[in-house]
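The protein record filed here:
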Amino acid sequence: MTDPARTLPRLFAERGRWFEEALFASMERAGERPVTAAQAAVFANLDDGGTSISELARRIGVARQTAHQAVHGLIGMGLLEQAPDPASARSSLIRMTPDGDRVHRRALATLGVIEDVLVERLGADAVAALREALAGPWGAPPVVAAPDGGASG
């Protein structure tokens, strides 16, 4: 049986947290206001023209209420704004303010520097292979026959 700590999903999650911790600490050290992981996910999933809260929730994989809380925290910080959706009178779009755009560009540049550290630690070939494997086509998630977990005593 595979050690639960070594499954690919767990390793992906741990490495995602590694990037988050590095990014959040670096941004705070640079004087930017701290954000939560949910708030960072909102930024990572915004379209240039704006995105509805429902769509953000779907992309992030959280409840609409959770996305709503993250968005409104960022609105309160002056990083996002709510604007009418030209395609729907009943909907609004969430988009970056100029300050939000500045912080987002700074975060992306910081991630680039963090990736450079990873290249120093793992090597350029390993990081390139990792990026290629993650960005390549995986196809639809499979539905497989789940093996019997065995009898418990």
Notes: The beta strands are 80-85, 88-96. DSSP finds six helices and two strands in the chain.
